[in-house]
């Protein structure tokens, strides 16, 4: 896709956002509609949906920083280094991604940072929702998850550019599971602390990393 075509799509997206705001659509609905629109316009018909190429077509430069450079970035922009996933510079010209494991979701997030730049009231949670909708569309993902019994390993084969944690989070957001627990190097963290579940399924992701999906029967 040429630069002029990408600029036309970007202009159309901004017109779409203005229309949705005029009709008093919620911000979550607006970013979901934009996610569907850009998938269609950039000719994605099935997963995996890749954010990298879209950023390039939109003229947003993507840089991969090495761990030792993050301290400089965090200090310069007064950011908690533990929270850095990507940094969007408001002129729409640069995205910084900190690790390959985070990069695709981070880049999808930054697409929305870029397209919604200048529109008021949109926050990180809205861009995260947009990234999830882009990478794992609600209707399609729900159908796939139900047909596969919410098997995390099988879903990773389809949405292989998404991390296991992102997939588990999507399952929870769409109420396909009632909770999940991440066990990493014997550290245990539940997504929802006060949810009592009586059915679980464990998925070992790596040597020291497991995710347990939980349901209430």
Summarize this entry quickly:
This protein is an alpha+beta fold. It is 50% helix and 17% strand.
Oligomeric grouping of the chains: single chain
Alpha-carbon distance between the two ends: 49 Å
CATH architecture descriptor of the largest domain:
Orthogonal Bundle
Instruction: Please report which band the strand proportion falls in: under 5%, 5-15%, 15-25%, 25-35%, 35-45% or over 45%.
Output: 15-25%
**Integer tally of domains:** 2
* Estimated radius of gyration: 18 Å
CATH hierarchy, class of the largest domain: Mainly Alpha
Strand order of the largest sheet: 5-4-7-6
Helical fraction: 40-55%
| Rounded average pLDDT | 87
Largest sheet: 4 strands, antiparallel
- What form results from the Cα inertia axes? globular
Question: What is the fold named in CATH at topology level of the largest domain?
Answer: Arc Repressor Mutant, subunit A
Q: Quick one: how many beta strands? A: 7
Class by alpha and beta content: alpha+beta
Overview of the molecule:
With 217 residues, the chain is of the alpha+beta class. The chain contains nine helices and seven strands. The chain folds into two domains: 3-135, Arc Repressor Mutant, subunit A, CATH 1.10.10; 139-215, no CATH class. Strands 5-4-7-6 form a four-stranded antiparallel beta sheet, with helices on one face. It has a three-stranded mixed beta sheet with strand order 1-3-2, with helices on one face. Strand 4 and strand 5 (187-190) form a beta hairpin. Helix 1 (3-22) packs antiparallel against helix 2 (27-41) and helix 5 packs across helix 6. The radius of gyration is 18 Å and the shape is globular. The termini are far apart.
């Amino acid at each position: 896709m040429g630069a002029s075509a990408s600029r036309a799509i970007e202009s159309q997206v901004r017109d779409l956002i203005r229309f949705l705001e005029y009709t008093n659509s919620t911000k979550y609905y607006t970013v979901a509609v934009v996610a569907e629109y850009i998938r269609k316009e950039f000719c994605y018909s099935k997963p995996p949906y890749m954010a990298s190429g879209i950023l390039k077509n939109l003229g947003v430069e993507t840089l991969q920083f090495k761990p030792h450079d993050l301290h400089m970035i965090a200090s310069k922009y007064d950011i908690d280094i533990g929270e850095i996933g990507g940094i969007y510079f408001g002129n729409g010209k640069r995205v910084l991604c900190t690790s390959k494991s985070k990069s695709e979701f981070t880049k999808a997030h930054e697409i929305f940072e870029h397209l919604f730049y200048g529109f008021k009231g949109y926050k990180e949670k809205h861009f995260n929702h947009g990234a999830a909708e882009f990478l794992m569309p609600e209707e399609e993902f729900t159908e796939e998850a139900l047909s596969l019994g919410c098997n995390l390993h099988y879903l990773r084969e389809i949405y292989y550019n998404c991390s296991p944690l992102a997939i588990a989070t999507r399952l929870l957001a769409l109420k396909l599971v009632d909770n999940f627990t991440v066990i990493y190097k014997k550290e245990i963290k539940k997504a929802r602390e006060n949810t009592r579940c009586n059915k679980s399924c464990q998925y070992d992701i790596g040597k020291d990393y497991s995710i347990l999906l939980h349901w209430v029967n």
